[in-house]
Amino acid sequence: MDQVRSEQARRRREERTALATPQAEQLSHAADADPHQDRDDSLALLFPCRHPALSEPSRTALTLRAVGGLSTSQIAAAFLAPKATTPQRISHAKQSLKTSATPLRMPQPAEQAKQLAAVLHVLYLIFNEGYTATDSTDLTPPALSTEAIRLTRLLHHLLPDHTETAGLLALMLLTDARRPARTGADGDLMPLAEQDRTRWDRPLIAQGLALIGDTLPRGQVGPYQLQAAIAAVHDEAEHVDATDWPQILALYDLLELLAPNPMVTLNRAVAVAMVHGPAAGLDLLAALESDRRTARHHRLLASRAHFLEQLGDHHAAAHAYREAARRTTSAPERRHLTTRAARLTPGQD
Length: 349
Known about the structure:
Residues 1-38 are annotated as: Disordered. This is Putative RNA polymerase sigma factor. This protein has helices spanning 2-6, 8-20, 23-30, 41-46, 56-66, 72-79, 85-99, 109-131, 142-158, 163-176, 202-215, 223-236, 245-258, 262-276, 278-288, 298-310, 314-327, 331-344. The chain is mainly alpha-helical. It has a domain at 272-344.
């Protein structure tokens, strides 16, 4: 940690240089760079945390805590796991490191290649927590997302030909570009459909589109590239009605085949509802109700409420919105969901 702090001045100089250098020039120089020189210490810390004595979930949890600085509730939300199990997982991981004969160290280049997917996953989770805080009075803590983007830029600079690193960076840029419009003047959450798109960060969108446009044609498509492609379709639409939902649904179909996950299924249900109607979306949600990770998740309940509202069942929709509000630990999300319920049942508390 002392080494990390001592490098802050160097990082600021590098960031100023990066901001002053056109992206195309950065990428062209990156191919000639020595991937073993000029490493950022924060990025280097991600690799030693992949200790062989730890299970994969424990490695990720410990890295999120030690490097990302996430709380136990934030880590539990990232894993879709009960909050009570997270401290036990981290404590067990620390104890395993103390008793292990293998010291924490920077892995050799061959080992780094094998661990890269896990490092990308950690950066992805840190970014997500910075984009929508799990437990906060504010919707987003931008510092987390900014740090995740900074580290992913550096990783992409070191590995310019790794398509999933480029895909993750593109996803972060295309998503973070919407941050200025995600809250109104009073700090309340603004859903994507209601955002003022003139407030989106167009230079970030251009960077993200250039990255994913260069990466997808290579034919080595992974989950981050598919998510970036979905984000690109949203960002390219001048207004919500211009969104190409059939294309988004097709991309989610591929993503669910390539990397099945309850949250992917939930997002796909939204795309299905936009293409085939809210009743079709509700049918897909039924499969998630038997999954203990998502059965009472506030996003599942909020999606159900939205579909019911579209079908005209305002009483059931209001109930689902209130239940979702009770389940979320984000104050802005809770206010938004409570407001939606109140609009459907005027005169009721």
